[in-house]
């Protein structure tokens, strides 16, 4: 049977790279995005949803899960925009930046996991990866700054950990993890690439290429963990 993957946030840099890589591997792909797809692509079903709790979300997911799903990747994220940049000091913190960051980085993934839960609790060996960030690790934080982004990603990691515990009560074969993709050349990281060590910045294609085997190889013992792009566990 051909593997069937669901990519949520499919129009972003990493999300679209996942779609392209999976299609190149001969997989069946369902994709959800706020942006429509203008062309028809073989083995790709593209669904446009404005937000996770849209009225049509349930029917879209029912259609997607009418055939077995192998793995799900949530690729939502926001770091800067609308004249807002990551805070270097708490003096720069604003309610607007926090609201924007929490809406994209925690509220949307949380509502998608809620909508997905009735389906994933029944699927044998389902694998779910939620793209997070190493800067959301409280233990690893030695530099400070980036308040809104760090807080929202730490909350995202707690969402994944808590959901993994509940999911295991219904589906002991499921694997749900937070996944740090590494620094990727996308619009999200573009303003912060100047002083990166050589070799640290990866193309979206390279990021998807190295993350897909990690996701495909997930097992229930890893569920609830924050994983690095190479599959190694990171501290919360």
Automatic annotation (TrEMBL):
**Gene3D superfamilies registered for this protein in UniProt:** NAD(P)-binding Rossmann-like Domain
Q: What Pfam families would the database entry show?
A: adh_short
InterPro entries for this protein? NAD(P)-bd_dom_sf, SDR_enzymes, SDR_fam
- UniProt-listed PANTHER family: SHORT CHAIN DEHYDROGENASE, SHORT-CHAIN DEHYDROGENASE/REDUCTASE SDR
Write down what this protein is called. SDR family NAD(P)-dependent oxidoreductase
Provenance organism: Alishewanella maricola
């Amino acid at each position: 049977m051909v593997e069937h993957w669901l990519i949520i946030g499919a129009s972003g840099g990493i999300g679209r790279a996942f779609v392209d890589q999976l299609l190149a591997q001969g997989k069946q792909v369902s994709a959800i995005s706020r942006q429509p797809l203008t062309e028809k692509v073989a083995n790709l079903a593209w669904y446009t949803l404005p937000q996770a709790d849209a009225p049509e979300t349930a029917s879209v997911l029912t259609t997607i899960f009418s055939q077995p799903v192998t793995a799900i990747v949530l690729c939502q994220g926001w770091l800067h925009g609308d004249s807002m940049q990551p805070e270097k000091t708490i003096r720069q913190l604003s309610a607007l930046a926090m609201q924007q960051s929490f809406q994209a980085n925690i509220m949307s993934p949380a509502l998608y996991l809620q909508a997905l839960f009735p389906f994933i609790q029944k699927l044998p060996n389902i694998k779910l990866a939620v793209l997070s960030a190493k800067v959301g690790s409280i233990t690893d934080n030695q530099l400070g700054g980036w308040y809104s982004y760090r807080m929202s990603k730490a909350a995202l990691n707690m969402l994944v950990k808590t959901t993994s515990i509940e999911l295991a009560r219904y589906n002991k074969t499921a694997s749900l993890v937070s996944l740090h993709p590494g620094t990727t050349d996308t619009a999200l990281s573009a303003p912060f690439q100047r002083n990166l060590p050589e070799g640290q910045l990866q193309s979206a294609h390279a990021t998807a290429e190295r993350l897909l085997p990690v996701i495909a190889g997930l097992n229930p013992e890893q569920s609830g963990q924050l994983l690095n792009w190479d599959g190694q566990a990171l501290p919360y």
